[in-house]
Amino acid sequence: MKNAGLSIVAFIIYLLMRSIWYSARREYHYLTPIGDEQHIIACWHSDLLMIPIYRVIRPKRSASAIISQHKDGEIVAKVLSYLSIKAMRGSTRKGAKRVLLEAIRAIDSGEELQISPDGPKGPRYHIHDGVIALAMRGNLPIMTIGYRADRYWQLKSWDKFVIPKPFAKIDFYIDTLSIDGLDMDSAKSLLHAKMLEHSLP
After folding, report:
1. Tens of pLDDT along the chain (201 residues)?
2. In a domain, 162, yes or no
3. Hey, how many other C-beta atoms are within 10 angstroms of the C-beta on 190?
4. Residues 28-34: contacts with CB within 8 Å, 24+ apart?
5. What is residue 66's three-state secondary structure?
6. Domain housing 122
7. Separation CA 91–CA 108 (nearest Å)
8. pTM of the full predicted structure?
9. Is residue 43 part of a domain?
10. Residue 164 β-bridge partners
11. For residue 100, is it within any domain?
12. Ramachandran region of residue 62, left (φ > 0), alpha (ψ -120 to 50) or beta?
């Protein structure tokens, strides 16, 4: 019954996501050319409701996302399954070693890996080491995905989760950056500045 309940909640969230998506006036801003090469995908935790944008950019690419082992993560994993995005369960707090090995195998097999650099519990707009470490391990560029809606709700959660209102205008910002030759701190600073350019206060 518990699993059934989680599945129902996940399906309702998916329907909400799609209804917002299809009612919105969407505009895509590719700030740098996006090629076919493999990337690490970075998106703030607050912006996850509009993750269908990934399937606009990569309609057929094999992809996985790192999701926490909390019960909320189970809901997110089920929602992502509707978008053909596989879930890797773990975080820096729990299951870190196992999910790191899974992530490395996924990268080595050519998959794109999606990470919320400030997840699963913040602080908001903080870059944890994982996204940089995996990009360095795979010698991969990072694709940042963010958006701004002209009308939205913002939850009182740690991440100030954003829910665009139906029929809102949503501007998506897709960018890529290379961290080749940078050390960990420099790469984190660069990614942080890039992701904040089109983030809500």
Report:
1. 467 788 899 999 999 999 999 999 999 999 999 999 999 999 999 999 999 999 999 999 999 999 987 767 888 999 999 999 999 987 656 667 788 899 999 999 999 999 999 988 899 999 999 999 999 999 999 999 999 999 999 999 999 999 999 999 999 999 999 999 999 999 999 999 999 999 998
2. yes
3. 17
4. 28/53, 28/56, 28/172, 28/174, 29/171, 29/172, 29/173, 29/174, 30/174, 30/175, 31/173, 31/174, 31/175, 32/175, 32/176, 32/177, 33/176, 34/143, 34/174, 34/176
5. strand
6. 2-196
7. 20
8. 0.93
9. yes
10. 152
11. yes
12. beta
Please report the sign of the dihedral spanned by the C-alpha atoms of residue 63, residue 69, residue 74, residue 76: negative
Helices (H), the chain: 2-23, 53-57, 71-81, 96-108, 129-138, 184-196
Task: Give the residue carrying structure tokens 């094999």.
Answer: 62
The SS3 of residue 196 is: helix
Residue 91 to residue 150: CA distance in whole angstroms: 32
Tally of domains in the chain: 1
Residue 201 covered by a domain: no
In the block, tokens 């890797």 appear at 88
Q: What is the DSSP letter of 49?
A: G
Distance separating the N- and C-terminal Cα atoms of the chain: 40
**Could you tell me where the DSSP H helices lie in 109-183?**
129-138
CA-CA distances (angstroms) from residue 48 to 160, 184, 185, 187? Answer: 11, 25, 25, 23
Residue 135 CA to residue 58 CA, distance in Å, equals 18
